[in-house]
Amino acid sequence: MQTSQNWKDYELLDSGSGEKLERWGKYILSRPDPLAIWPKFEKELWNKTDAHYERNEEGGGKWKTKTQLPDKWDIEYRDLKFIIKPTSVKHTGLFPEQSVNWDSFVELVKKEKREISVLNLFAYTGGATIALAKAGAKVCHVDSSKGIVEWAKENAELNGLQNIRWIVDDAIKFVEREAKRGVKYDAVIMDPPSFGRGSKGEVWKLEDDLWSLIEKITKILSDNPLFFHINSYSTGMSPTVVGNLLVSAMKKYSGNIKTDELGLKEKNSERILPQGVFGRWAKSL
Questions:
Q1: Roughly how many angstroms between the first and final C-alpha of the chain, as a whole number?
Q2: Are 10 and 75 in contact (CB under 8 A)?
Q3: Helices in the chain by DSSP H: which ranges?
Q4: CA distance 225 to 250
Q5: pLDDT tens for residues 175-187?
Q6: Residue 180, Cβ neighbours under 10 Å: how many?
């Protein structure tokens, strides 16, 4: 299990009874997490929550605030800055457990004596994009949501970054077009959802469509790829499954594969809240 040790503006304060309690900068938020099936420890801390996300019977929900929250605020991770906004679907615009991967990407890029081109698919608000661009990589950021890409652009502006290509598009269609254009990338990151629909009603199911996309991605890798990284938050995807996909995809290249779980460690206990899995093929680890 990989957990980040380098956050100052984020903490998992406690978890349990289907919820997690987090500090984002100076604000404490509680929101659902179905994997937190154990009891809560820090019961007094839960009374200090600034906002709580409450689900409704229709499957949605909304934030209920105890104190006046700003519409957005900034937090920092090392030399990176990000905009936090509590959204109507419980998210805040950042997955702090992914900072473990950001650090690995930056280390790999900085070892190279060449400019690295990176394709970030299903790129959300750009945590990995910002980290890699700050490290000097040339990044193509792809997400199907225009609003989310605008949020990622705000993050880039906050960090003073310009070496990013912004694409609002379906990931599969974009990869297919890049292959036809002969475009190549030295590194690829993908964080595909378990289920989704495209702008024209196209259905994405992880178990049915992931390998097909991976095959397409191998056609746009450069002759000297640096890494290929897959994240998954689907409960059906284990590190072994992700590793097997990478073994199959990268069999013609010489490199190493690392797989593991990601998690958030509680501030005052040894408990770790699982937050997905990853697999990464790299020329060197």
A1: 17
A2: yes
A3: 43-46, 99-111, 127-134, 146-158, 171-181, 206-218, 239-249
A4: 10
A5: 999 999 999 999 9
A6: 10
